[in-house]
Hints:
The chain is mainly alpha-helical and about 80 residues long. It has 3 helices and no strands. The chain has one domain (about 10-75).
Amino acid sequence: MARQSISFTKPNDEWLKSQVEKGEYSSKSELVNDLIRQTRKQQVQIDWIKAKLEKAETSGFTDETKEQILEESKARLNVKL
């Protein structure tokens, strides 16, 4: 695993420490890696939504019902990285 040296603002450092003290994470590194994983997953979802919106804007119509679109969106939210 690559080692990095990063600095945090005081409020962010205090929050990180509190999460470790609560036992949510074993270290600040574990927490930061989890936050990055969550952000990456969110970005995949955002990119998918943007692509759907761009396609919809250019096509004008869809054959999918709102229920189908909602179901597909929910399924995408459960994608694991």
